[in-house]
Amino acid sequence: MKQTKFLRNLLISAVLGTLVFITGSCEKDDDVDKNFGTVTGVVTDGLGMPVPDVNITVSGIEGTVTSGADGTYEVKNVSIETHTITFAKDGYQTTTATITASKFGADKVATVNISLVDAPARIIGTIVDARNGNAPLEGVMVSVSENETAISGADGKYEIKNLPVSDYTVTFSKTDYATLTKAVKAADFVDNTVTLDVRMGGVELLPGLIVEDLQNADKWYYNEYRGGRNGDAYPHWDWSTDYMCALDLRGAWEEQNEGTTLQIRNTGSEQNNPADLDHFDSFIFGSKKITADNKILSLRVRTHDADAASPAYFGVQVVDLSAANPTAVKIGETKTYGSSDYADFDFDLSAYVGKEVIIAVGIYRAQTGDYWKQLVLRSIRFASTKVEGTNWLPGTEVINNWKLTQEMVRSTMVQTKKSFTGISPVSGNRDNYVNGYRSWRTVNHVAKEWEFVPLNKDPEVFPSEGYLIKTRGNTAVETQVPESYLYAKFAIASGNNRLTLKTRNFGSNYTFFKVTVIKEDGTVAHIAPSSNTAQEASAAADGCWKFKHANGTADNPDGYASFVYDLSQFNGNNVVVAIGVYKGESTNTDENKLVLYNISLD
Q: Going from the N-terminus, what domains does the chain have, and what CATH number goes with each?
């Protein structure tokens, strides 16, 4: 009897236990149904076609799913809260999307459709260690963006793949090594690949710069660079014609009314930096071919926060990369100056005639602690003799009143680029032009890559239609001397002897312009276009052409008029090509404008 009662109680307990377990399980299932849902969608390409085999991950969820042949995917049991969804497949740019709880509908389904960008390109290379006999360097972080990175392996090799063909700044960083940055242009990709080998840990020839950096320095093609925004000796020294801040500056600097200003780094812990009269604290630099015609470097400077008793210390250093062991060499003694008046200093570069070398102009920290000095650069000029004041460069003019000398023609460096835009990626005016000028560095802007000569009139720098040079309004007819012009030197040869100017003007008046070619021996030729697509165009006096054409915008590049010039008669020569605007009509009292949308050689 007792045994029967025990068995009955045991059976009841077992049944009750089961009931409790089932009840608990039901409560858990209700919780899943309430707080979890499904993410679904379709993955397509830029043409709207489905992309299969895309790896899809959801933050907080283990594992991945892949899209099907029709591009669809489904991720179940996703908590109804914020998640990041990542879509990745070779040949496409990795893309992320964010969903929040509100994205889930009443059916607890969140739909996320995504379009992947075709990304067939890659950047590859090998990194070596200059401190260790150029052995492969492991553990270098290589990045083009926050999400597009790679780490070099034991063999020093790295690969960043699934990139669109575009411009990139590639950063190489590793603890205890100077961080390097390299620029990659869309045109650098060959078969969708750029190979970028770097050497880290090399000796710094200039602060933060090793040999490989200096090999890619900006070219200082021309012999005059002006900084600041004050209108001294207008228009020669006006903000709209002073483009020094478009050059490569390192350290602390600022564009000011009085000039492009190099500053001592003096913020926070920087005040603990030691005095150093051998290495620049801040500097500007570029690669320059030195000849007998431009062997004297002249600086026009003034200072801020300095006086005769406590001057700014500055100077010029040269790095000859062709030397067996390149080093930074001071030119002359360290200079001192402390005054709000401009003064002119000269530096003799005769030892480098016949060589292309790195020129750096910089300010030194003369003491540690709270030390604040500013060196204002109004101009950097190269000539056969010292240049002073706001004068034009000295020499024998090629054409009377052009201010272009035979010495300048001979010593201007040959341009390495072949296509130039007049469209500024960033707009501006006198109050905020610096970012605009700096943006020219990335696009081969004509005002950075060609030398602008403002004989009588300033340009319009930022019109949306292109860089614009123009005439004065009420002034006498003059078809021999331009109101202003740009010039650059090119090596003319097959494949580089056809110049195309895409341009337009405004209003009902003609614009008069001229293309002039000057050989290094001083021979001058004003050349006519071999063809043009302007609405109206014809030859005018003294080799000018006049035209009317009111079409063309950055969004309508095919609307511009094209003037094509055959330069094959100059094959085998380095020539200066000048494009100028002229006052062509006495009855026209308006400003006449020549818009430079694009200049190219092929």
A: 35-115 (2.60.40.1120), 121-202 (2.60.40.1120), 224-394 (2.60.120.680), 419-601 (2.60.120.260)
